[in-house]
Amino acid sequence: MTGTGTNATTGDEAIATAAEGHAVTIAGAIDRDSPVPYYHQLKELLRDEILSGRWPAGAQIPSEPELCRLLDVSRTVVRQALGDLGHEGLLRRRKGLGTFVAEPKIHGRLVQSLTGFHDDMLAQGRIPRTRVLDQRVLPAPKVVADELGLPEGTPVLMIDRVRSVDGEPIVLVTTYLPHALVPGLEAVDFTDRSLYQTLAERYGLVIERGRRLLESIAATATCADQLEIEPGEPLLFLRSVTYLPNGQAIEYYEARHRGDRTVLEVDLVRQPPI
User: Fold this and answer.
1) Fewer CB within 10 Å, N side or C side of the chain?
2) All residues at 6 or more sequence positions from 166 whose CB lies less than 8 Å from its CB, including other chains
3) Domains (ranges, CATH) in the chain?
């Protein structure tokens, strides 16, 4: 546990210059006599800056070389501390831009609620936006056909979208619907439109129930590029089938939520014994 040997911090705080040109203060310093590892001390110093609000959400923190210089620690120490804080959801890296204090996670009730992402975010007072990557009719692949209860190759409408909240990409969603039930829907612009509301208003199709499966996966290079994260970062992978009152499947979708920005809430109700 040795320092870099240059520019050691001797006072009770270190001062850096953030990307915006403002002075960033790090209260405290590395205690060279403590048995606590340097990376853990650094992690706690940075955590205190974040949780105290002195480094607000969205603020860019000093770069790795700058932290090394300010606190006279090695690059390995800095990387381990930043990595731990990233895993805890307090910091996030933005490709090509640097490391920033993470925004509070977005809470969704999509695991148990039949509201869509658009309506769920509006109900929380957030601003949802959608970028449509692809929207076309195609023959249903086997996995999609099986989920929708259709013969393989049946025409389905596929909508591939990146959903953002307050200007930040949060989830990548691919949706499939039986085209026979939604003729003409391929021409609708879903940039700022609720799919479920459109189904109800345009086709009289109201979703009654659904089945959803949640698991954790790692972001592929393609997903990472669309969500502005690094490949391999954790995603919450949600697969869903929703049904009409007559039991017919109307929608199958796969959603990849950023693990660093999303919390999916589930309410539990104890059932009386039978």
Assistant:
1) C
2) 126, 127
3) 13-101 (1.10.10.10), 106-264 (3.40.1410.10)
CA atoms within 13 A on the CB side of 31: 11
Q: Which amino acid is at 188?
A: V
Whether this prediction's pTM lies above 0.70 is answered by no
Amino acid identity, position 95: K
| Cβ atoms 180, 155 nearer than 8 A | yes
86: Cβ–Cβ under 8 A, 6 or more apart, which residues?
A: 92, 93, 99, 260
Tens of pLDDT along the chain (274 residues) come to 444 443 443 334 444 433 344 445 677 788 888 888 888 889 988 988 888 888 888 888 888 898 998 888 999 999 999 988 887 778 888 777 888 887 765 544 444 444 555 556 555 555 678 899 999 999 999 999 999 999 999 999 999 999 888 778 989 999 999 999 999 999 999 988 889 989 999 999 998 888 888 888 999 999 999 998 889 988 889 899 999 999 999 999 999 988 877 766 666 556 566 5
